[in-house]
Design brief:
- The protein has about 280 residues and is mainly beta.
- The protein has three domains: about 110 residues, Immunoglobulin-like (Sandwich); about 100 residues, Sandwich (Immunoglobulin-like); about 45 residues, no CATH class.
- Helices cover about 5% and strands about 35% of the residues.
- The protein is built from one helix and 20 strands.
- The strands form five sheets. A five-stranded mixed sheet has the order 2-9-8-4-5, with no helix packed on it.
- Strand 13 and strand 14 form a beta hairpin.
Length: about 280
Amino acid sequence: MVMRHLWTALLLILTLHTPSVTLTHDHPDNSLVASDTVLITATFSEPMDTTPSLSLSGLITNEVMTNSGDPSIWTYSVDLSSLSIAGDGDHFIAVSGSDLAGNNYSSVTGVQDGDETSVDSITFSVDITSPSLILTDSDDDNIVYPIDTITVTATFSEAVQNTPKVNFSGVGPKNIDMTATGSQSVWTYEFDFRSFSIPKGQYTLTVSATDFTGNIYSGAENIIFDYRLLDPNLSLDDFIKNFTDPDFNISASSSSTGDISYSISNNSIATISGTLIQ
């Protein structure tokens, strides 16, 4: 009789024991973007009778989890690209279920490890907003010449990672690293057009960058430069030459840094030659 009461008491204790759970995920951190997929694993302290369900606050409600082969371990893959996310914000993962004795899991028995990566309720920061951008430059009219040097400044709406890249359209230079300032959201680049060998024409400057969450800048901000070559200015000293003079050389100088050639209008009268100036 005494043994029966002891067994009954022990059974009562066992059946009244509420399961606990530890949640983990496979993402490098708790910051997610709209294209992320994260696998959630719920490890219960005992086998579960019914299939546990998972909720992601405001986005997923009581979705059925998948058994791993162990009745105490269940998983669910959250594909953010399939969800309707209105904006940036924090969202938390929670699970529910009951053990073989019918005891429902209660989140108050969960254990938090201190860094939000293994808890009974995981909070994710969801960032779906790409950075915006304002481009400015130091030239007044964006008409530039081979002798010009200008500074382009890219001001993003938030800090961006790595180094933003500058690109020119057409045959212009590509993937040029910008220079950091005191702010991760402000970057500059100084263009010395004497270092570029490009034909005259209009060139569209754009910038590419990614924020620290992983959102890529996808805006259309740009600057259009009208790149022109300098018109050479030819100067000749006053001179008088007679056909009988032994020295009949003519000297000329030009403001152009390009190749110079000389010619006269009537080759039957005289010929002329010049030196190429690099």
